[in-house]
Fold:
Amino acid sequence: DIQMTQSPSTLSASVGDRVNITCRASERISFWLAWYQQKPGKAPKLLIYKASTLERGVPARFSGSGYGTEFTLTITGLQPDDVATYYCQQCRGTFGQGTTVELK
Amino acid sequence: EVQLVESGGGLVQPGRSLRLSCTGSGFRFSDYAFHWVRQAPGKGLEWIAYIKSNDYEGAVEYAASVKGRFTISRDDSKSIAHLQLNSLKTEDSGVYYCVRDETTTCYPAHWGQGTLVTVSS
Structure:
């Protein structure tokens, strides 16, 4: 099975900061990667699919990049509403362990 | 509007069975693939099962942790996807989500609200 390793596990940043979350696949997965945001008590929300395609309605401060085994979710200009846990997922398979984003 | 509603969760003893249902509306159910994803209390997300549309013979895939115990199926005439959970263990407890996807690409944009399964004696 392909393993997805996400880092960091927790991230503390200030409003307006640029935030990067990394996801590494144990095998090459082309661009078949999605990123989700989850808030407590809620279902995950798709942010990015096919590694870099922004889901409709998601703010443009979210972006995704990468191919093969290394992927990054970037939040440019962190907002209070972005406090959440973020997950990567290889298409139809394993999730990363999650990254909790907090405000400093 | 696309809607997915899970049902069938509850409290069950270890070793027993449960069948979860995911009812879709607002779209042509037969055109889509479906996943089940679970989340243990306070833990991360775990993908557990996938079923393609019947155009692709309804092919299924399972995570190693549930293979042989869980069965995913679909009834397009009723717009329902099922997850049969057998030989339940305490570690199977959690919220189970149904997710709509596209068979020919990867676009898991629509999630249900989840149904809670608690395995306990």
About this structure: Residues 2 and 26 of chain A are 6 Å apart (CA to CA). Chain A is about 0% helix and 50% strand. Strands of chain A lie at 4-7, 10-13, 18-25, 33-38, 45-49, 53-54, 62-67, 70-76, 84-90, 99-103. Chain A touches chain B through 22 residues (CB under 8 Å).
